[in-house]
């Protein structure tokens, strides 16, 4: 009996040793996943801790932890002085934030949705965006205007607009539109540290989506430079250029098209103004085809600007077919779900446009 036990133990040791030689014990640790809302929260927490001039104000950002829980825990940690609940008056608290920025602080002004920023658009454009120029470089306005942008679900015409093209039209502003958790953290930290007013366009439907975070992005020193796009997927047949939630749609469409032998290069713009034209041109020169994808309206939109830049630049001569835009439908957003779905770009619309552009 004892001999058989010893034999069993020896065979067990040999099996463990064999596993070790094969490297099973060296398996990489599971990647850290983080939801977009938590990445935004972490970015603000780190910057509030790093710089005492940073503070957050907006509706329900403090005691309620934010309407979308993006500021969860910050009021308890930093108190009333730096996490400030405001009345429902966007023109008022945006004006307070701009004044604070002019006085040397670094406010983060949260709009419960960017649709409400229209109440404060005079403060954003006339007071924040133009002051540095009008003061001949004497008066900087380091402020971040942030909140959910674009269509959510079932909130109809007055709460479903994409403001990317609106604010990107205005000189003096930087306009940022993150897609995943890493974008959200790195770009928000850069926006808070920037000496210019930054419009930071989040997406409500992305808040609860988890993404893998690289080891580098977990550092308190991690930032992503404003004005630089990222190639999320390499491809050779067509360039798909998008921002925010629709980067996911482009990646999903690329997976489907790859099964048919069509390799899409997917570009995540990250920043709308300044636009990384060089990245788009480099891709178009490689693929010879361009499709832009956005949730906003078509007329004077982000895609329209990209098409104009390509036409005016060196990449135009590399196009083998006209550029195509996939956009929201040119109507106010309907309330009914089936109409809403048909008013926004879907994966099938991207696939259709790619095949039309490639003439397949």
TrEMBL record:
Pfam families according to UniProt: Transket_pyr (PF02779), Transketolase_C (PF02780)
GO MF: metal ion binding; pyruvate dehydrogenase (acetyl-transferring) activity
This protein's UniProt keywords: Carbohydrate metabolism, Glucose metabolism, Metal-binding, Mitochondrion, Oxidoreductase, Potassium, Pyruvate, Thiamine pyrophosphate, Transit peptide
CDD domains named among the record's database cross-references: TPP_PYR_E1-PDHc-beta_like
Domain of life: Eukaryota
Localization annotation: Mitochondrion
Record-linked Gene3D superfamilies: 3.40.50.920, 3.40.50.970
Cellular compartments per GO CC: mitochondrion; pyruvate dehydrogenase complex
Transketolase-like pyrimidine-binding domain residues: 34-209
Any single GO BP term: glucose metabolic process
Cofactor: thiamine diphosphate
Record has Manganese as a keyword: no
Entry's EC annotation: 1.2.4.1
Catalytic activity: N(6)-[(R)-lipoyl]-L-lysyl-[protein] + pyruvate + H(+) = N(6)-[(R)-S(8)-acetyldihydrolipoyl]-L-lysyl-[protein] + CO2
Function in brief: The pyruvate dehydrogenase complex catalyzes the overall conversion of pyruvate to acetyl-CoA and CO2. The pyruvate dehydrogenase complex catalyzes the overall conversion of pyruvate to acetyl-CoA and CO(2), and thereby links the glycolytic pathway to the tricarboxylic cycle.
Stored PANTHER family: DEHYDROGENASE RELATED, PYRUVATE DEHYDROGENASE E1 COMPONENT SUBUNIT BETA, MITOCHONDRIAL
Listed NCBIfam families: PRK09212.1, PRK11892.1
Name the record gives this protein: Pyruvate dehydrogenase E1 component subunit beta
Natural source organism: Sander lucioperca (Pike-perch)
């Amino acid at each position: 009996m004892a001999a058989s036990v010893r034999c069993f133990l020896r065979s067990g040791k040999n099996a463990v040793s064999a596993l070790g030689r094969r490297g099973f014990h060296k398996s990489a640790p599971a990647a850290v996943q983080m939801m977009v809302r938590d990445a935004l929260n972490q970015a603000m927490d780190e910057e509030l801790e790093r710089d005492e001039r940073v503070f957050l104000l907006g509706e329900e950002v403090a005691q309620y932890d934010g309407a979308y829980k993006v500021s969860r825990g910050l009021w308890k940690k930093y108190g009333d002085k730096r996490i400030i609940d405001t009345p429902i008056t966007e023109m008022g608290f945006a004006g307070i934030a701009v004044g604070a920025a002019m006085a040397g602080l670094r406010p983060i002004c949260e709009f419960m949705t960017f649709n409400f920023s229209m109440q404060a658009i005079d403060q954003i454009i006339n007071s924040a965006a133009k002051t540095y120029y009008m003061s001949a470089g004497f008066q900087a306005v380091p402020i971040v205007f942030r909140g959910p942008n674009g269509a959510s679900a079932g909130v109809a015409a007055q709460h479903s607009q994409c403001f990317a093209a609106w604010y990107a039209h205005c000189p003096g502003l930087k306009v940022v539109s993150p897609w995943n958790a890493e974008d959200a953290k790195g770009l928000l930290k850069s926006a808070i540290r920037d000496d210019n007013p930054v419009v930071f366009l989040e997406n409500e439907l992305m808040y609860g989506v988890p993404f893998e975070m690289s080891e580098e992005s977990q550092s308190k020193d991690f930032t992503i430079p404003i004005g630089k796009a990222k190639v999320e997927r390499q491809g050779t047949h067509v360039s798909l250029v998008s921002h925010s939630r629709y980067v996911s749609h482009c990646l999903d469409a690329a997976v489907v098209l790859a099964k048919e032998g069509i390799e899409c290069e997917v570009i995540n713009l990250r920043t709308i103004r300044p636009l990384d034209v060089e990245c788009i041109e480099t891709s178009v020169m490689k693929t010879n085809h361009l499709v832009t994808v956005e949730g906003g309206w078509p007329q004077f939109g982000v895609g329209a600007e990209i098409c104009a830049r390509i036409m005016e630049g060196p990449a135009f001569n590399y196009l083998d077919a006209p550029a195509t835009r996939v956009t929201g439908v040119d109507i106010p957003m309907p309330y009914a779900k089936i109409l809403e779905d048909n008013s926004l770009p879907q994966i099938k619309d991207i696939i259709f446009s790619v095949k039309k552009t490639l003439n397949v």
